[in-house]
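Appendix B, Record 12. Input sequence as logged:
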Amino acid sequence: MPRPVPAWLPVVGFVLIWSTGFIVGKAVVPVADTSLFLLARFALAALLFLGLALAAGVAWPPLAQVPRHLLAGALMQGVYLCAGYGAVAHGMSPSIMALLGALQPLLTALLAIPLLGERPSGRTWRGLGLGAAGVALVVLPAMRAGAPHTVSPLVLLIGLLAILSITMGTLLQKTSIARADIRASSAWQNAGALLVAVVVVGVTSATSGGFTALRWTPGATLWVTLGWAALVLSGLGTWLLLGLVRRGQAAKAAALMFLAPPLAAVQAALLFGDRLGPVQWLGMAVAGFGVWLCQTQGSARHAEAR
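Logged structural output:
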């Protein structure tokens, strides 16, 4: 009889995988237009989950529920990534985008109260606050290095749209679509993200001189990055995230994202030679302690998934 999977393994796996999204975003810029890259990523991920669902013979969600699955994927991946990559491409520094991302667990906790009936405890709120503070410390040196740097209000709004969209997409995972098999749901959700990317590619090509004007440079960097993004980030990473959200409070699952920027900073130091200072190490410790507070609290009230 196989041993049950340790409860900590999906958590560690998700955090390690999710943190590589920052590295993927940095690596793909020289070789591909981000909107075209995301279109290919979502298409491959949708095919991956379609194949897994068909091979396992799982039940597909009723047609009446399909729009919810499409919307959840469009928000959680499509709008989030297209807007986030777009904001960085139009002048927002990755450090500021990471700082905005620290608002997502806090926003998730706030909106989960009226929308899901989940009420985080005081301990969880303190953990969320420490997590956000830790992320701020991690990205502070990068923000200082990029100063003075002005971002247009439109670009800032695009960055905020990215955070709002992944928040609403996360909360949708706790509604009736949680009853569907994750493989079938993920196939539809990546299809929803794909639709967003198709629109963005269309707009981008129309404003840049046509589809052929979009950057796409085949090579090892592009194919390895695309394979990782589609199969590991949108595949395994999203599957782990959906499982964590379905099994617990949305705020507690979202709090794990506080660990992504610190881990990305370590990866950037190893891969790109970025330096880590004492402030960043302190930020990692603070963020880690905040996440620990969130994950070790079990007395908050939950509402059943609707």
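DSSP finds twelve helices and no strands in the chain.
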